[in-house]
């Protein structure tokens, strides 16, 4: 069948969603959090075996959401000291090593050698590799750089675009935008966000200039825009700007703070001033961008590169240092609050139906032990992390639908993690080739046993659905029957992916039914399985029959109709399982997907 369709994060020492919760087991599948389980449910899931579920022992770990970083120069930043000072672009392994599962790419000073085409292409690459990536259109300069010719069109037509930024304000590298220009840019982004369903914010790079946040206030004064339409970043860059930033928070605005050596002091100031204002703050890394230092005359006197590790390092410093912050106070700044600010409703929290983006941290040192990131992943050949790909397709690196990476905390003398090996659950190629040779002959020899067995199941006569041994038998039959049925795609790779997806569909729901869990509607958005299983292996009609059979609203006559098509016998199998376990249709609550 390939690798397990489910992941059980078992017995975490502590659970933060990001609020601290009572310890619970986590069931993951199809890139989603399927539920928080009690001991009895987890025990049942665990008994299904490695063919169905991969168990991850988290007894020494804190489990929390993956980090959401809204400011990453994914194509590299820099260039203020000439072409040789251009920073290198980001790599997947550096995100994973830093615990970042969602990133937003941005351009900075250089919008000449770094352009929107580069940014969007890199964003697509990171999404395909396994993390979630969006981008801001534009750069320091105005008019904002776009591909489509306008900010509104960019937000509406390019899925990964969520707003405009980083527009430079109060900085000698900016285009010195006047209030009217800022208001127009922010208004266009706002309307584009309304039309496209994204946040549509104007993300503003704040420089060292003495004007501080006043240009933004002037833009607000001449428009009907709310103060939250602007999101200033680098808000704690210097004392003058930070003092202005505190006032901005009191006025109802939001701030983004760079995770540098000033961040903790700035957050402490907010807490001492008014703790509730922390809800208006987020933290970002400025990773892979240049960190230039200029003197009072604007001359470059220092240069560094942003580190994605800065988010996790700040978290560790604040929680383990003095003064000691509770983990549940710091986590929202890096997870749920940036996700909410960006209208990424599936990110930043651990809850049923949300994306399965999780970090497992050592409960004592907060060192990163595991990261789980949803989505398709292609693991690089040489990485800073050791990876195990939880794939439901035989072509693991191409069509996997879940990712689990384990990190070594051992560092070499130069401070870098050593190169590690990559392990993939690959399809048994030799066995598959042998099966392919027999494929035509086997198609005509489909055994009748599954058909009669399933008919008995639907009529409620078979005891196998209540026994672990029976489940294993059904798994063996599915493994056999899936492989001898043709793929609708007509090619070996497509057939393997199709067969693996149908098997994953069967076993996932069998496992959930076995544990007595409600089946969330996120499995079948719009009566289809395209999102959950990654390919259209269940048509809307069959999905509807799936649920009606499962709830007992349709009888054996419809089941017999389904059974006439041997290609869909596994559909009847799962329907029979749900039917015998009485899963109620009222338990199928809709799950609204975020952008």
TrEMBL record:
Transmembrane segments: 545-563
MF GO annotations: beta-aspartyl-peptidase activity; hydrolase activity, acting on carbon-nitrogen (but not peptide) bonds
Signal peptide: none
Keywords on record: Membrane, Transmembrane, Transmembrane helix
Family: Belongs to the metallo-dependent hydrolases superfamily. Hydantoinase/dihydropyrimidinase family.
PANTHER family linked to this entry: COLLAPSIN RESPONSE MEDIATOR PROTEIN, HYDRANTOINASE/DIHYDROPYRIMIDINASE FAMILY MEMBER
Protein name as catalogued: Isoaspartyl dipeptidase
Organism field: [Myrmecia] bisecta
Lineage per the UniProt record: Eukaryota, Viridiplantae, Chlorophyta, core chlorophytes, Trebouxiophyceae
């Amino acid at each position: 069948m390939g690798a397990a369709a489910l992941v059980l994060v078992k017995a975490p020492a502590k659970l933060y969603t990001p609020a601290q919760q009572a310890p619970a087991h986590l069931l993951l599948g199809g890139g989603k959090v399927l539920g928080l389980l009690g001991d009895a449910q987890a025990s049942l899931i665990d008994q299904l075996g490695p063919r169905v579920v991969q168990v991850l022992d988290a007894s020494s770990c804190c489990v929390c959401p993956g980090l959401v970083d809204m400011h990453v120069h994914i194509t590299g930043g820099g260039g203020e000291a000439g072409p040789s000072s251009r920073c290198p672009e980001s790599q997947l392994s550096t995100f994973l090593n830093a615990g970042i599962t969602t990133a937003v790419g941005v351009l900075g000073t250089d919008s000449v050698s770094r352009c929107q085409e580069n940014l969007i292409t890199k964003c697509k690459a990171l999404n395909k590799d396994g993390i979630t990536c969006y981008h801001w259109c534009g750069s320091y300069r105005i008019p904002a750089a776009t591909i489509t010719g306008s900010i509104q069109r960019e937000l509406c037509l390019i899925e990964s675009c969520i707003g405009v930024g980083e527009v430079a304000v109060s900085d000698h590298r900016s285009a010195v935008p006047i209030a009217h220009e800022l208001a127009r840019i922010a208004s266009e982004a706002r309307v584009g966000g309304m039309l496209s369903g994204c946040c549509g914010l104007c993300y503003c790079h704040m420089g060292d200039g003495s004007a501080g946040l006043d240009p933004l206030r002037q833009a607000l004064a001449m428009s009907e825009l709310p103060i939250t339409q602007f999101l200033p970043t680098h808000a704690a860059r210097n004392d003058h700007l930070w003092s202005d930033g505190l006032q901005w928070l009191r006025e109802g605005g939001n701030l983004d703070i760079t995770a540098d050596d000033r961040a903790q002091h700035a957050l402490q100031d907010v807490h001492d001033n008014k703790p509730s204002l922390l809800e208006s703050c987020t933290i970002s890394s400025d990773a892979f961008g240049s960190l230039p230092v200029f003197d009072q005359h604007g001359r470059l006197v220092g240069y560094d590169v942003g580190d994605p590790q800065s988010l996790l390092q700040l978290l560790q410093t604040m929680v383990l240092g003095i003064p000691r912050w509770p983990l549940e106070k710091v986590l929202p700044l890096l997870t749920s609050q940036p996700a909410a600010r960006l209208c990424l409703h599936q990110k930043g929290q651990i809850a049923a139906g949300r994306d399965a983006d999780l970090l497992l941290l050592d409960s004592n040192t907060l060192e990163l032990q595991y990261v789980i990131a949803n989505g398709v992943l292609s693991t690089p050949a040489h990485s800073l992390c050791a990876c195990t790909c939880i794939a439901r397709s035989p072509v693991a690196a191409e069509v996997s639908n879940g990712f689990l990476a384990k990190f070594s905390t051992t560092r070499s003398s130069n401070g870098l993690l050593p190169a590690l090996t990559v392990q993939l659950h690959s399809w048994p190629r030799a066995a598959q080739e042998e099966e392919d040779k027999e494929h035509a002959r086997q198609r005509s020899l489909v055994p009748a046993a599954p058909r009669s067995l399933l008919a008995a199941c639907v009529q409620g006569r078979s005891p196998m659905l209540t026994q672990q041994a029976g489940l294993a038998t059904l798994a063996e039959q599915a493994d056999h029957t899936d492989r001898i049925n043709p793929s609708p795609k007509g090619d070996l790779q497509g057939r393997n992916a199709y067969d693996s997806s149908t098997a994953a569909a069967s076993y996932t729901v069998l496992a959930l039914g076995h544990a007595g869990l409600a089946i969330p509607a996120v499995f079948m958005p719009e009566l289809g399985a395209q999102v959950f299983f990654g390919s259209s292996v269940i048509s809307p009609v069959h999905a509807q029959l799936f649920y009606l059979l499962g709830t007992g609203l349709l009888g054996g006559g419809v089941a017999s109709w389904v059974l006439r098509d041997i290609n869909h016998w596994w559909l009847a199998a799962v329907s029979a399982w749900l039917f015998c376990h009485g899963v109620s249709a009222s338990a199928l609550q809709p799950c609204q997907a975020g952008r």
